[in-house]
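User: Can you help me understand a structure? I only have the sequence.
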Amino acid sequence: MNDKNLLGALQMGMRSSVNVSSDILAALLETPALHALLDSFSEAIIVCDGEARVRFINLAAERVNRLPRAQAVGLPNSEFFQRSALMFDDFEMAINRGANSALTRSRDGRVLYTSTQLHRTWPGTRPLG
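Assistant: Let's start by predicting it. Here is the structure, written out as tokens:
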């Protein structure tokens, strides 16, 4: 796996997402109610900011990646991938080919479906907020 930060936002098993400014994202992620809501999902959710740094992982993401939230938050997504119990090489190759999902293998042989929602701000537009 290379050192590039390829993913703007990564969500494992989820298909919906929201594009907001960094300030709004930071404020939202400080909200205990949002943490509780995201922790209630059985799907692993990983939220990355515009600089491809992990800003939040829910409890399901902690379990599947075998990486505690306290260690994951703030990591560049490439470093998160290296520390994870999952092998993201196939996922990274799929993203490089333009796909938004792939099967991801765990180091103990499990196979998981992984998908991403990428958000880019197009010229002449701005994030919400």
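Now, to help you interpret it: DSSP finds six helices and six strands in the chain. The first helix runs from residue 22 to 29. Let me know which part you'd like to focus on.
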